[in-house]
Here is the input.
Amino acid sequence: MFLNLNAAALGISGHQSELIELTLTYDFKGMEFDLLSFAGQVDLNGYDHTARFIESAGLVLGSFDLPVNWQGDDAVFHEELERLPALAEVAARLGATGCRTVVMPASDDRPYHENFEFHRQRFTKIAEVLAPHSISLGLDFLATAGHREGLRHQFIHSPDALVTLAKTVGLDNVGVSVDLWQWHVAGANWDLFRELSAHEIVSVRVADVPPGVSNELISDEQRLLATEDGVIDIGVVISQLEIVEYSGPVTPFPHPSQLKNMTRNATIRAASKTLELKVVPTEEEQVAS
Here is the structure.
């Protein structure tokens, strides 16, 4: 696994050269940025010119958000699907092996089983386009109750249902993007996490929750930087990823509002400690893995 920087999640912005310098200074091996914007620059200036600083720094595009509006009608979906191969080619040249998309937890339009089949079909088509570029599709979910309020049909808002959807697609390059904060808020059984192979985990996001806050009342803004003495036992999770030989990105992903009193360097320095939180697993954890 490698440490991946998403500067926006840390409330940090800047020119590409600035962000690359910060990434290298604090020993991140990958970074995330807007693939659509980057690809637009490639169209204008060519790949070699646009990617020269990233490649000379030895960095990779650790992960990226799937640049397809797959929730739209058929015409919109197929139009966006047609431009995906070119974007996937750019991402692959930057070293990306996975992208992420979010499954919305409720719908006004489709009951559960109809919605499940809709997602399965759309994700199958997307994954088929990504496969020639050796890029996996990671599915994520939203656990907080506010995302489901006022919508008629409940849908996936727990890890077990998400894993089931990924497996139902039935393609080797479809897995889950594990957001530890979402898993905790959903009240996940961490045994499910231990059952995942490295191949099934496309990417990992790390954040902690405030102590004493109910999962039913927590908001998306209450994503904290992971620390050694946090509520979520990040160390056990990192150690489990090491046990299964997960080789993908681990991205510190707090909410930027939680870091407004920290300097830019202090923020990235704290985030860079994420992979140092691993612990030596117990015999029971080794057996469970």
